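Progress against Task 2.4 (sequence-to-structure conversion) is shown through the following example record, which the project officer requested during the mid-term review.
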Amino acid sequence: MAVLVLAWLPCRAMVPFRGGEGTHDAGPDKPELKMYDPEYFPTPSHVISKMLDPYREVVDVGRRDNSALENLTILDPSAGSGAILNFVAELIHGDEAPDLHAIEINPDMQPILREKYTLVHDDFLTFHSDVRYDLILMNPPFSNGDAHLEKAWNILQHGDIVCLLNAETIRNPHTIRRKWLVQLIADHGSVEYIGQAFQRSQRPTDVEVALVRLKKQDDHGGFDFWEKEDFQPEEQDFDFTGETLSNMPAVNDKIAAMVHQYKLSQGAFVEYLKARKRLMHYGSPLINRDVDSLSGIIAEAVRGRTGKDCFNTFVNSLQRHTWDSIFERTKINDLMSAGVRKDFDKMRKDQGGMPLTEANIHALLEMLFTNRHVILQKCVEEAFDLMTSYSDGNKSHWEGWKTNSAYKVNRKVIIPYGALSYEREYGTWRTSYSDSSWKWDDIDRACAMLEGKTLSSPTSLTHLQPKKARPYTTETERRSLVRVRVALSDRLDELNANRREVKYTHYVDNVCESEYFHIKFWKKGTLHIVFKEERMWQLFNQAAAAGKKWLPNNPDHVPTPKADPAEQRYAKKLEEDNAENRKLALTA
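Structure tokens generated for the chain above:
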């Protein structure tokens, strides 16, 4: 069975030395900690509590006010299994919960974080994001914590950093970076030495720890206008009750103020339209949607409580929609079977929080290109399993493979009752509305991919091309590859449209053809599909057998399916029936 690799975080082969975050108990549903990492020191809960002290005001004995953490956008750049983020999440519940982002270099920990938080990257030192963070909580690797803290300071635009460091990083500033860090702390924060704080950790160490707090003020952050007092809505008493009407000078002043604000609103709206038009000009092509879609993103964003909230909501939503449009523009959906698409949609949802950078876009496209052959193999295997699942008569053992489990799809595949239905009272036909009828597309998709095509490729069946050109053009519209489901639906529609004509009262035209199959159906709901070309039938079986590891180890061994003589005769008879029906259609 082919294994489809859909994770496109640029994971590393070796996990570097790091401090790590979080307590993590290995279990049947959790990956085992990589204990060979000598710097993995999960953060004890009492240390996390101390890190958060300034944001939790004591209001009573044993009770704290956690409201300062509400509505914050928080990043843990060395999240491990998520202990710090879990601690924060447990403090705030409901609609006011903070927006929690995580970065983690250990690929085994990433699935744990994705279940609860937004995983935005794997290596913090290469991280870039347009999101405005309010608070960065970090327990970086002890060996290069100064580099991580410098990175945090550089990406933070306005807010706080709380960082655990090896105390020697501060006490022994023998490098340029450490000297810079000591001066940074002196200018913008504080340091507290909290001793051997990890002695009570899941993995104890006697390292002396320094707790560094930094505050960064952004004097030109771009959102100070939102909080300015003069930006608040004008509070005018436009009261025209009987009591106020007795004071006409005051009434005249209110009327003048109202008209003045009305004119100012018009000017502000013109400025809004100018900005909105620029936004539509740049944003609409990104998300590959119409104007209404971008308008929806804007409407959602402007409901934020602060300017920063509005901006982050807009960035996150635009980023997610842009990733979706990138996926769509790769036309990768044309290559995916139902099972592959399910895995792929989960991956796309998980990776929606990835920053939209050139490196990340390149990584995605490289992943898609690298996995195209795996997607093809998976698609063929799923189509093989689908065709053999309908009936035991669809498969037979293949002696050339020399294995007890190996079998091939017969050239004729039987889809039993339920493929379609016939209503005798009205003489009408219809296809099944069950999910299985849509899975037939996976069979056509697999055959097309084996030929290097997709379902959207033009059909080679010239007799099925539309006879009429598009209005006001001389070109004939070309149809895509004719799938089994489409060919069957077209034939049933034709039967329904002509069911009252004389020529159909004694004869039911129950054969049709798709791109790769001859098709025959019966009123009882049974459907037969037969590979039109023996070459495609052989290629399909060989590809499925290769993916299921049924072929012998000898790479030169390529077995050839042996067609049953009865199947060959049936295929030939269906081909003749199809040819005859085409003649009748042309002369009708």
